[in-house]
Design a protein that fits this description.
8-stranded parallel β-sheet, binds calcium ion, about 15% strand, 22 strands, binds 1-deoxynojirimycin, 5-stranded antiparallel β-sheet
Length: about 575
């Protein structure tokens, strides 16, 4: 058993490689491009990278349908190129996590192709096969579950004469984790990458891998989740996770489990205590502040819902487990559009950084988030690529006009997180010298890494400042979390406290300037401003020594007295 590295002190950058950076000019992001950008990633102040899947895949779900777990997709490079990236990342002090997708494979994986051949081949029991039900002559699926992506969760296979289960797309058959041979395959995949030097895994929908064996019919107001209670947090999940944990710990590897629809109580059974089976958990509550359970049921942003989600997880895990902090990944539209404001793009994009990075936990940033990249609006459904977006467009609100249906996709689709990263204001945003595989957001002329790098007040530089501050402060790393003014619809304020020090993070979610009061027990004359998204680093040096009641900060914005002023979407971080 090897000692684990301290993931709690770290922060991670997520790469969705196809749109990150193209190194060989074919229009598709790849490991050559990643290699060239490692210094940039390091410059953010993060400590590691999580790669969304980089394995061979027919791309029905862009990498989450894997056809070979022990190789690299030819579009992205070779195993040798991956080793180069890994070595260079390690030399720069960056850890590398891969995505472990074991709930399902691609239907083009060798195991599935073999499994279809019949009930008496070595792979026959690798997937979840059931006989059809019959209504007269008509074949019916074995139960009433729906898939999360398209139609029913069952697909009939003529060759085998049975239905197979797919909780996601048809091309993503679910593995039968109850088969010990499948679990041995998982361990062998883990060892393959860990032996190469990989530092851990982000584990895809890990709470779905054990199903209730009877696969009973379910019932819900929303038929799409009929089956959820029977495939989420299933009866053998802990047992299987413990088996995988043993392998991870032999290498000191870290495991972060993606766990949709999880409560704090359930989460603690996975990530609580020394015998935990996962180190951190990616939940969805903090991503549902503008929608019900999925971005496709949109209701506009509710700050109080976001604060509630933060509160539940922060208080719930405090002293018991460690949290994975995130606001964006490859599955959600861009957060500036969702929780911020395009009119106040710079201020809201940077405020959102302080709003989550300085909470208790390990922050994750998604590529382009640090630039404040925004959603793309395409004018035809044919231009979108995501299976979930196409399904939603063709299934819901069919009576609405095309324009209205497209607007809904624009607000909801994860394709917005999958446009090429905007590096420069040159052709194709500097992403490729060829023809980009997907649309570049036209705002790259102003929203790009090169321009933001030079601008001391940019979103990019504010992310850097937040990450650096977090790393340098014991209070921000280890301090307790406490929220103030939970009922406010404009303000999000939280305290981190460690030994005698308190840090107060104050975030305006309001489109106008506003006033706020310090919480009771805070002496305004003792505060020192550490960070402000309206004041650049150089100006901060002056205001650094100022106390918040000294009358005015360097820009004469803070009035004397207990009431303080915030500009639209301003973030202030005070030390007391
Ligand atoms: C969660 C992943 O993040 C998402 O991109 C994927 O489509 C599903 N799991 C299925 O693998
Ligand atoms: Ca390429």
């Amino acid at each position: 058993m090897k000692k684990q590295f301290d993931f709690r002190k770290m922060s991670f950058y997520q790469i969705w490689i196809r749109s990150f950076c193209d190194g060989n000019g074919d229009g598709i992001g790849d490991l050559y491009g990643v290699y060239d950008k490692l210094e940039y990633i390091k410059s953010l102040g993060v400590d590691g990278i999580w790669f969304s899947p980089i394995y061979p895949s027919p791309n029905a779900d862009y990498g989450y349908d894997i056809s070979d777990y022990k190789d690299i997709h030819p579009d992205y490079g070779t195993l040798d190129q991956f080793r180069k990236v890994l070595d260079r990342a390690h030399a720069l002090g960056l850890k590398v996590l891969l995505d472990l997708v074991i709930n399902h494979t691609s239907d083009e994986h060798k195991w599935f192709i073999e499994s279809c051949k019949g009930k008496d081949n070595p792979y026959s029991d690798y997937y979840i096969w059931r006989d059809p039900l019959f209504k007269g002559e008509e074949k019916l699926p074995p139960n009433n579950w729906y898939s999360q992506f398209e139609g029913l969760a069952w697909e009939y296979n003529e060759q085998r004469g049975q239905y197979y289960l797919h909780v996601f797309a048809k091309k993503q058959p679910d593995l039968n984790m109850d088969n010990p041979k499948v679990r041995e395959e998982v361990k062998s995949i883990m060892r393959f990458w860990l032996d190469m030097g990989v530092d851990g895994f982000r584990e895809d929908v890990i709470n779905f891998i054990s199903k209730v064996p009877e696969l009973p019919n379910g019932w819900s107001f929303v038929p799409a989740i009929n089956g959820l209670p029977f495939y989420k947090d299933g009866p053998n999940l802990h047992k299987y996770l413990r088996e995988f944990r043993k392998v991870a710990l032999e290498y000191g590897a870290v495991q972060i489990g993606e766990a949709p629809f999880t409560s704090v109580k359930t989460a603690l059974t996975y990530i609580g205590g020394r015998n935990r089976v996962l180190d951190m958990l990616i939940q969805f509550d903090t991503m549902f502040a503008d929608c019900f359970m999925t971005e496709y049921v949109h209701h506009g942003f509710w700050l109080r819902k976001l604060k509630h989600a933060f509160r539940v997880w922060q208080y719930g895990l405090q002293g018991k487990a460690w949290f994975a902090l995130y606001l964006e990944n490859h599955d959600h539209p861009r957060v500036v559009n969702r929780y911020g404001s395009l009119r106040h793009w710079r201020a809201s994009g940077s405020m959102l950084a302080a709003c989550y990075i300085l909470q208790r936990g390990t922050p994750f940033l998604y590529q382009g988030q640090e630039l404040g990249m925004t959603n793309i609006a395409l004018n035809s459904i044919d231009k979108y690529i995501d299976v979930a977006a196409k399904n939603a467009y063709n299934t819901f609100f069919l009576k609405d006009s095309v324009e209205r249906r497209l607007e809904r996709i624009h607000v909801s689709t994860r394709d917005s997180a999958r446009t090429p990263v905007q590096w420069t204001d040159g052709p194709n945003a500097g992403f490729t010298t060829g023809k980009p595989w997907f649309y570049v957001n036209p705002n790259y002329t102003s929203v790009n890494a090169e321009a933001e790098d030079k601008d001391p007040l940019s979103i990019l530089n504010f992310y850097r400042r937040c990450l650096a501050l977090r790393k340098s402060s014991e209070t921000l790393l280890w301090g307790t979390y406490r929220e103030y003014f939970p009922a406010s619809r404009k303000l999000f304020m939280y305290e981190r406290k460690y030994k005698k020090e308190r840090i107060l993070v104050i975030c305006s979610f309001h489109k106008e300037a506003m006033h706020y009061s310090l919480p009771r027990g805070y002496d305004p004359s003792k505060g020192r401003l550490l960070l402000d998204n309206y004041i650049d680093k150089e100006d901060m040096k002056g205001s650094h020594r100022r106390v918040c009641v000294a009358g005015h900060d360097s820009r004469q914005r803070v009035k004397a007295g207990v009431m303080k002023r915030l500009m639209p979407y301003e973030a202030q971080v005070w030390k007391f």
